[in-house]
Amino acid sequence: xxxxxxxxxxxxxxxxxxxxxxxxxxxxxxxxxxxxxxxxxxxxxxxxxxxxxxxxxxxxxxxxxxxxxxxxxxxxxxxxxxxxxxxxxxxxxxxxxxxxxxxxxxxxxxxxxxxxxxxxxxxxxxxxxxxxxxxxxxxxxxxxxxxxxxxxxxxxxxxxxxxxxxxxxxxxxxxxxxxxxxxxxxxxxxxxxxxxxxxxxxxxxxxxxxxxxxxxxxxxxxxxxxxxxxxxxxxxxxxxx
Length: 241
Fold this sequence. Notes:
The structure is a single chain. By secondary structure, the chain is an all-alpha fold. The protein has a domain at about 25-185: MetI-like fold (Orthogonal Bundle), CATH 1.10.3720.10. About 80% of the residues lie in helices and about 0% in strands. It is built from ten helices and no strands. Helix 5 crosses helix 7. It starts with a helix and ends with a helix. It holds the Pfam family BPD_transp_1. Its main location: membrane. It is found in: Cell inner membrane; Cell membrane. GO terms for molecular function: transmembrane transporter activity.
């Protein structure tokens, strides 16, 4: 009973803090996915451009950030970024340490990692588009901007949904590493609760259950989005021209 009281929502319970931490984890992951989507789209465009320099830069980005340990990237962004901001502050006459906000640094780090994976997802989705659709769009007089808006974007998003679901799950788990910055996300809150109460098994199991709930709900959302996207015919976008 004492263990259940610790997980309650009263004055002595940690339940509310764990729920808030789970919401913080979702917020960090969603922000990171948005950052990664922008970076991934740019890198995918570079790798598909055919320009040797852009292709090489895109390959370097995806190779480095998929190959370097995630925790190292978080350290580099958080501690390295804080050192850089402090140096800039000293150059402007400010004395003292300037640290990057934990949320911003964590979301940026996970977003950069996510961008490397999303770049490959978007590139593969673009290559999956039927060349006949693009040729037919050109034949009926669609200009480049309309083809991009009516054909490429809808089809890329349609083919990318399964891969983006995997990247979301990866980012959701990577968000646990942001605990090293002190952000009160789910892993950090579970650690603090376990250390404060000496109920390590209880709170790490509770944290694991919350992660499973988040991943299970995410799976249902992405599976639903994939089913809905697959209801339409691949050429539906052309029919709207």
